[in-house]
Amino acid sequence: MWLRNTPVALPLALALALAAPGAALVHSSEQGRSGAPRTWALAGGTLYAGPSGAPLPDAVVLIQQGLIAAVGTRASVPLPRGTEVLDCSGLTIVPGFWNSHVHFIERKWSDASAIPGPELSGQLRDMLTRYGFTSVFDTGSQWENTRRLRDRIESGEIPGPRIHSTGEPLFPKGGAPPGHILDVLGTMRIEFPEVADAAEARAAARKNLDAGADGIKLYAATWAPPVVVLPEGAIAAAVEEAHLRGKLAFAHPSNREGLLAAVRGRVDVLVHTAPAAGEWDEGVVAAMRTAGIALIPTLKLWRYELRHDRASARDRFTEAGIGQLRSWVAAGGAVLFGTDVGYMDDYDPSDEYALMAEAGMSRQQILASLTTSPAERFSESGRRGRIATGLAADLVVLGQDPARDIRALADVRYTIRDGRLIYEAPAAYHTNGTRRTGTLRMYSE
């Protein structure tokens, strides 16, 4: 809970505490601007340390200075004096989630440095932190504005996820959406770079990266008619520029021609399936695998895009995307979770989880797409993606076990980033039968 721009010392809705054996209640004194005590613990929940492995019941995660200091059962992890304990009885603890496809382009994000703190916090909560996202990759926005948003989060002024961004995406010449289309979509008016050849593509990529962007985004083929395809030489030149700096290249495929151009251009991540491209046969999948590509499915997006069309057309288009993901997963392809929220204003990821399961992804594979797979792809696996001693305390506490219902991944009660509580569900959710959960108090021996 946050008031103005300063985090509250302890969530006001939290009540009766869960004590370690032999502990006695004392008052809190360690909260400060971080939004979480310097030493605290989650206790009593069922823990999934990563996508694989058996769940650990009655688990404890000890957090110190933003890192995971110990993980184990309550009986095996002694709590230091002064540890505050969050009662997670009846809840499920998993690693913090990545959303690898978001946008900060809606008009409400304009002039991010001037948006009042409580309003900006609410926007981040509604789109991201309430769904457990501790890290996101923005794959196309006005970079200078997104940088200001990120700076306000990293300063500790407002709670929010870790933001990576490609800045402004590169369009083929004549392919950027005109201003009146952006107005209808509710998007900020952004000056998108358009490139015609390898030299222009390399220069545009260099400009974004010089400005501090974390990668580049290319429209291998545009999304609105008339569809324009970016020349393969231009894709390859921009990708090479990114790779020379150790950065990743993302591509929007749109159709079969754009998909194959992106693959041949050696992009790292496809930000969508491509229902318009038809079935992905063995040759397409093999080429993608050889290129080392990761795929962000965005299956819910296809229902959203065709929401004004006949149900039969919408279902066929969505099923085509599901079929492509099914072929990709069967071939062992890497999958990153992402939803295109910020372009899509329906932020709830529940349907995306269900559609990924319909495509044949197991609960373990879906959890990997949220945690270990993006951590590996974005060179963060030494710091995030699992619940293990020494890693950053990026954690999500769920109200239900996703092993029983995959939609439970969206039933988030707490989101914790670097040991700081950046989201808690309303007080009405903190009940489990007749037992109240979600209590945080400080204890000492």
Offer a concise description of the structure.
The protein contains twelve helices and 24 strands. The protein is an alpha/beta fold and about 450 residues long. The longest helix has 20 residues, at about 310-330.
Describe the overall structure.
By secondary structure, the protein is an alpha/beta fold. It folds into 2 domains: 2-95 and 386-444, Urease, subunit C, domain 1 (Roll); 97-377, TIM Barrel (Alpha-Beta Barrel), CATH 3.20.20.140. It is 28% helix and 22% strand. The chain has 12 helices and 24 strands. Strands 3, 4, 5, 6, 7, 8, 19, 20, 21 and 24 form a 10-stranded mixed beta sheet that branches. Strands 14-15-16-17-18 form a 5-stranded parallel beta sheet. β1 and β2 form a beta hairpin. α4 (198-210) runs parallel beside α5 (232-244). The longest helix is centred in the C-terminal third of the chain and has 20 residues, at 311-330. It is globular, with a radius of gyration of 22 Å.
